[in-house]
Write a structure and sequence with these properties.
By secondary structure, the chain is an alpha+beta fold. It is built from 8 helices and 27 strands. It is 15% helix and 37% strand. The strands form 6 sheets. A 6-stranded antiparallel barrel has the order 12-13-14-17-16-15.
């Protein structure tokens, strides 16, 4: 079966393959519902010894009650989003008509009516409605969007909303509980009640940019959280919670061969950089990203594992200097150089370098340590503006 990566909003048109820079499947009136029952037993034991149950039924019931309380607590901060195209009918009695375009999810980030979601959920929309868990429906305006992070902030004319509480990426671990909350298949459009699914954090640091989009100069889907929590079309833009009811991710994509969540889900992780981006969008500001003017890739064998002193080199390999007069070229960096450290931080891989540079303020002078022909060197680069240097029209 072919593996297909899809962004998880439901659109009012035919199914399209995102691996060809398109969108996911539409929401349709007829669909099958799969009921999946999963038993989770906590086991304890030692190597070579027989594993025995550690918890009894009362403990499992207490855990279940904790899940119930969490779902009850967080649902009031989650929103169902529906978008429309407004068409000119040319008729005098009914000059305009709203045609459903897509649907997705969002969550309250400020009590004064600010709602965060994915940018692709509201892309191409002429009108947007937000339905809250109390079933109230509100027209929404776009405060600001950011194409590279695929984030957007909306505002509705409502106050005293319940904002979510933020978690922190540094505390997220593989294997911990994860709860996805949102509007799969547009079900919450009817009554405002979001769906909650349970899973675990399956992996961290997933890189899907090359699978989801054709032009990585514009959009970026790296460092994603992978989860086993069920995610379907319409979940995009919704929150992923930890067991403390804190948002640790923003649901964005699934891996699937059938457009429903039998595969793996992916979420943008919440860290200080994502929170800064959302704060800028809430303020109506354009987000600027740092840029070196290079294309990078993984350090493959036999280069990977090369030793400088007694230390194994990870790093990021410069594949191409994209701009002859860009920051990297001016600083003397060349193709085949391996970037080991950026501004004092050891570079784990190419995706890590992209993030480090991208989240560095434009105009910053940063020291880059790199390896060339087996010799460790240093240089100073002045971080450029990605959109400006690449001549991108972000439209934000």
């Amino acid at each position: 079966m072919k593996t297909v990566y899809r962004r998880q909003k439901a659109r009012g048109k035919r199914q399209e393959d995102v691996s060809e820079v398109r969108r996911d499947s539409p929401f349709r009136a007829g669909y099958s519902i799969l009921l999946v029952f999963s038993s989770c037993w906590a086991l304890a034991g030692t190597a070579g010894a027989q594993l025995t149950p550690k918890y009894d039924l009362a403990d499992l019931k207490a855990l279940q009650q904790a899940f119930v309380q969490l779902a009850d607590e967080v649902q009031s901060s989650v929103a169902a989003i529906r978008t429309y195209r407004v068409l000119d009918t040319g008729r005098s009695g009914e000059p305009y008509v709203k045609v459903p375009l897509s649907q997705g999810s969002g969550f309250v980030i400020d009590a004064d009516g600010y709602v965060a979601t994915n940018r692709h959920v509201i892309e191409d929309a002429d009108a947007i409605t937000v339905r809250l868990s109390d079933n109230s429906s509100h027209d929404a305006t776009v405060v600001q969007t950011d194409e590279r992070s695929d984030l957007a902030v909306l505002r509705i004319d409502e106050v005293n909303l319940k904002p979510i509480r933020w978690g922190e990426l540094t505390k997220v671990k593989v294997g911990q509980w994860a709860f996805a909350c949102g509007n799969p298949f547009g079900l919450a459009n009817e009554d405002g009640r979001p769906s909650v699914t349970l899973g675990v954090i399956s992996a961290m640091g997933r890189q899907l940019t090359s699978r989801l989009v054709g032009d990585s100069d514009v959009e970026y889907y790296g460092n994603l959280l992978e989860t086993s929590a069920v995610i379907n079309p319409g979940n995009s833009g919704g929150p992923m919670f930890n067991i403390d009811g804190e948002v640790i991710g923003i649901v964005t994509a699934i891996e699937t061969g059938s457009a429903v969540g039998e595969g793996r889900g992916f979420a943008i992780p919440i860290d200080k950089n994502i929170r800064r981006i959302l704060a800028q969008l809430r303020a109506g500001q354009r987000v600027r990203y740092g840029f070196l003017g290079v294309e990078v890739e993984e350090v493959e064998a036999p280069v990977k594992g090369a030793v400088v002193g007694a230390r194994v080199v990870p790093g990021a390999l410069i594949r191409e200097i994209k701009l002859a007069d860009g920051p990297a070229a001016v600083a003397g960096l060349k193709p085949r150089d391996i970037v080991l450290e950026f501004d004092g931080v050891s570079v784990e891989n190419s995706d890590h370098l992209v993030r480090l540079v991208g989240f560095t303020p434009v105009g910053t002078e940063a020291v880059v340590t790199y390896l060339r022909a087996g010799i460790k060197r240093r240089t100073t680069v002045v971080i450029g503006d990605r959109a400006q240097l690449l001549g991108l029209n972000t439209g934000e």
